[in-house]
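Human: I'm a chemist; would you kindly supply sequence and structure tokens for a protein?

Assistant:
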Amino acid sequence: AGRIGSSWLGLGQRALASRSARQLYSDRSGRMPARDVRALVSAAWSDPCDPGREEALDWLEGVGILLFGVAAAFSASLLARISRSSPTATGTSPVKAGLRMRRLLVAWLFAANTVRSLSLAAEFALHQGASSGALQHWEPAQRVWLGDLVALVPALIFLSAFSMIVLFWAQLHYTTTIVPLPLLDCVFVCINVACYILVTAIAACTFLLQAYSHLGTYVTCIVGFLDTAVAISFFYYGLMVVLELRDTSRKRSPGRLLTERVVALLIVCPVAWLLRGGWYLAWGLALLHRSRMVDLILCLSSELLPSLAALVVLNPLQRGGAPVGATDTLNDSTDSEPLLQEDASPQPRSITGVPGMAWKQLYPQPAAV
């Protein structure tokens, strides 16, 4: 009985200690002290608790919020220009399909930049100890879980946006090589949906099983793998399109520099994605210690830089000409031009004067004079 009483007493003391420790994390306003939050985040990211470093991180987050907001505003203005220039982009013409793909890509980039700007603002608020509503009752480990989720989900949206360029270039490549792939769009949609379902399942399982620290590791590995896959696919199909259509683009649109613009994307985007993909895989496999400073730099280099490059490349809508209309798309294909050339030689005329009707004596042949 004495041992049972002492064990119950020990459990009660530990419960009171844990309760008092939780109360230390929150004051009467429901805010976690910023010093405790910074220490908790630094421990989760393996960063040293340095006041100067924390100020630099806050400054870098503020710059990221501003830059991603500017990119979102730029993409919104470009989306409005595209909508005004081609309000009736319907049909199966290649030019119409390209305009629809451009509009959809700019819309995805607008959504991705907006979500990333809001994500950085939410991270900044979480690191400062701000909380409201249900977050007031969350434990520190749960707040770290929420911070990892908020930081990594925008990366998936950016990858979905740039995978649309991969899809468009793959369609151009297989159309040029006359390889029919009618289910390519379905495969693209299924892969994107599967990635979001996988991340949602991991987030739900880690939260329900209270394995809060595992979310960042698992999703970091997934994002690193997707970065590498998108970079390789982007470079391969972009290079194929450049090699196959550079002569045609120079003949059809000599002043628009289509080849040079695609090459610029091939240089900027895959390098940035491979850099972040390798770093994230090293973090996920515990080969390197996670650093919040490095993560913010990788976020700016692999999301903001490719996004701005794509928006700048898409900005010149129609140089030196009017927007493409419904009548202009009838002559946008050169595949059948050799079959439609008119014969310049005059047609033979018959004795009756009807064109296309002529007589030729087969037998007997007239004697040569």
